[in-house]
Design brief:
By secondary structure, the protein is an alpha/beta fold. About 35% of the residues lie in helices and about 20% in strands.
């Protein structure tokens, strides 16, 4: 049966299951089973260690400033960054494409108050972040992934230009509603249309690997005897579930 690529709104129940799963295994199956060659964000690192991310993407795109671009842009509370943050609530993460520029910060603690007030899950950007100590001290409760830290703002390198569209972040395509999963390894993008299937596949993968590790430890054999799992091992694991 042909796969449907229709975007879906991924429910919190699926996000909660993703939070228990490692990015490495998710990446493996998004690549192999959904045929997405570049789902991992290169050079995007955790800045709130110990906090795991699994949230729906709400997107924001920055562009290099130019007078003709800026002349047609809304500013102030109706600017693209505020409209993007307004889409974020519990279970959502703001994902900002700032062209990998580590001198440019998407915004600091004052603008990020909108995410705090909306109880959004976090921020992911391929640029820089600032004011982390302030956001931690004032309990913003945001999970943050970025490429670097900086004292700068976004100007003069970039301006928020578009929201709720397709972007790239760290070399990975992000479409509104995709699921971003993050742990200490980084962030992987799961297309929304693959999320429910993916979480089940990855849970099974983790289950059979846990079973294999138990067998290796119990028998004192080299991992290569059972790993990677072959069809017979999968059947053995399923029969003992």
């Amino acid at each position: 049966m042909a796969r449907s690529f229709t975007p879906v709104e991924v429910p919190q129940s699926i996000l909660d299951r993703f939070k228990k799963l490692p990015v490495a295994t998710i990446w493996n199956h998004v690549w192999r089973d959904a045929d997405v060659p570049l789902p991992f964000m290169e050079g995007v690192f955790p800045y709130t260690p110990g906090k795991r991310l699994a949230a729906r993407a709400r997107t924001l795109r920055f562009l290099p400033p130019r007078p003709d671009l800026m002349a047609g842009m809304e500013k102030g509370e109706n600017g693209p960054e505020y409209r993007a943050m307004a889409r974020c609530g519990p279970g959502d993460v703001l994902v900002a494409d700032i062209m990998g520029n580590t001198r440019a910060c998407i915004f600091g603690d004052v603008k990020a108050m909108q995410l705090k007030m909306n109880k959004a899950d976090g921020i992911v950007t391929d640029g820089a972040i600032r004011d982390l100590e302030v956001m931690e001290k004032e309990n913003y409760n945001l999970i943050i992934y970025a490429r670097a830290r900086t004292p700068y703002g976004s100007a003069p390198w970039a301006v928020p230009a578009e929201e709720n569209g397709d972007i790239q972040c760290g070399g990975a395509l992000v479409r509104p509603g995709d699921v971003l999963v993050g742990d200490g390894d980084g962030v992987v993008v799961v297309p929304s249309w693959f999320a429910e299937e993916c979480v089940q596949i990855v849970e099974d993968h983790e289950g059979v690997e846990a079973y294999i590790k138990e067998k290796i430890a119990a028998e004192g054999v080299r991992p290569g005897r059972y790993y990677p799992p072959q069809p017979a091992m999968w059947e053995e694991w399923r029969s003992r579930r």
